[in-house]
From TrEMBL:
This is Leucine-rich repeat-containing N-terminal plant-type domain-containing protein. Residues 1-23 form the signal peptide. Pfam families: LRR_1. It comes from the Eukaryota. The chain crosses the membrane at residues 431-448. InterPro entries: Leu-rich_rpt, Leu-rich_rpt_typical-subtyp, LRR_dom_sf. Keywords: Cell membrane, Glycoprotein, Leucine-rich repeat, Membrane, Receptor, Repeat, Signal, Transmembrane, Transmembrane helix. It is a single-pass type I membrane protein. GO terms for cellular component: plasma membrane. Belongs to the RLP family. The keyword Zinc-finger does not apply. It is found in: Cell membrane.
Amino acid sequence: MATSRINLFLLLLFLFTATFITSQQNDDEDAPPQLALDSSEQEAVYRVLDSVNSAIPWRTIFPDDLCASPPDGVVCDFFTVRSQNGVVTSVHVTELHLGYVSDYTQNPPCSSNSTLEPLLFTSFNHLRKLFFYKCFTGARVSLPEAIPEGFGSVLEELVFIGNPSLVGEVSAVIGNFTKLRRLVLTGNGFHGSIPGRISDLVSLQEITLSRNSLTGGFPASSRLRNLKVLDLSHNFLDGNAPESIGDLTELLKLDLSFNGFSGEIPSGVGKLKKLEFLDLSYNRFGNYGVPLFLAEMPRLREVYLSGNQLGGRIPEIWKNLEGISGIGFSRMGLRGNIPASMGSTPKNLCYLALDNNNLDGQIPEEFGFLEFANEINLENNNLTGKSPFSDSFRDRIGKKLKLSGNPNLHVVKISDPPLAGPALSSSASRVFTSICFPAVLVVLYILVKQ
């Protein structure tokens, strides 16, 4: 019996060992080959790192293969190509993230005298992501007049954020990036008009060109059917926004604020059924009233039209916009009463700005029940009557409840409304008294006797 057990144990041990060895062999076969980064590409990485921060001894800190033990912000990948001579595998840099963002993304930090290394555009043919964050903030740094044609053939994300000293024509940045998904150039020194060829980049899902010095009209965009974010805010763009904007049917965010767009807000915006964020504030749209097509945009969560002289009354469209959380209608020349539905239907309203208009009448009582509101600005109108906001409401919002500039509006002390619940009728009250009150007395009597 003991011999049988020993034999069984040895058999199990053999099977386990064989399985383990086979597994290790399979893991070794699946493991990426031990390849080193090409010396010229490694040198280019060193040069790029030196250009953004020459005070750091990159070659001393990272003397070995940069793909085997790279600094934060340098990412590599393996590539396999089949040829007549068999399978050839190589390793290349695929991502460069430069500029310290936070402790969670510790990219190589840039210095105040960062420069733009020309090898960046000629030595990385497999680059998928290029990211610069607050790297060019000191001396003026110029873009190349044109990016070499070979650069960016596989680029998916091009991101320059907060580089005010990086100047040049924006058209120089936008190359033939057929696979580009994200184009984010915000807070830089780019100028000139947005090139028409941007509409050829049909893979784009985000275009953010905010806070530059761009001029000219609205870019051709009708072919960008995959676009989800279009942000051209804080530039000097002008002219009319075209009806073709309605062709961007996948759009979730549209921000054209702080430009010089004029004329009518295109009705094509109403075709953007997936749109959640709309900001057209501080342009020159005018004299057509608040667009009624907003009621046809069921997913809209935030709408900002402030600073446009649209005039007219606030329309009764809010019953179709239950999910609205932010409304910015300041300085629009609005007149008339505030619709009660504006405070009753949007249950999640957090931000409401109707200041500096010509609104009159009373503030709807429904506004006093906006439990998620954290800022309400009704300043500088002609509102009258009593303020509907209770003491606890005013205490909760504090200084973000703005009512000044309405000389005939009276802010009086209002106690909190009673807790919500069905009120007892007089007959129900009598039944409650006749049944429950004697029962309470019986319970008290029992307790006292004990």
